[in-house]
Amino acid sequence: MTCLLFDPHLKVRIASASALAIMMDGPSSIFLQVAEYKESTKYGSFMPLSNSLGRILMQLHTGILHLIHSDTHGRLLIQLFKILLLLISSTPYSRMPGELLPKVITSLHARINEGFPFKNDKTGLLHDIGTQELKVFQDNSLRWFRLVHRERPPRAAAS
Question: Transmembrane residues, as ranges (predicted)?
Answer without folding.
Answer: none
